[in-house]
Amino acid sequence: VQLQASGGGSVQAGDSLRLSCAASGSDVGSWDTSWYRQAPGRKRELVAIHNPGTYTQYLYSVRGRFTISRDNGKKSWYLQMNSLKPEDTAVYYCMAKDPSHNNYWGQGTQVTVSS
What we know:
0% helix
């Protein structure tokens, strides 16, 4: 499975961005899909995770601003990020976990939010 993340960029505080992650090689429709981020000097953290038909969870600091969604037909999932803040600046990674609990990572996309 290969994941291709896209959609990052440089924006102003309060702006929106939509990140996309496209999977190739396998049908990820039943897999957990998620977004992580890593800011300079900090550990990678889970931003949002979606388990099909079961739950969706968000990092506390992004609740109400970020939304994870997916399009199984396109083997893709997304992170809609609204009301962006400078503290959201990080490299964002998409990740998918298969039923055997193997993790697959995208290459990362930079999000920079200036005040």
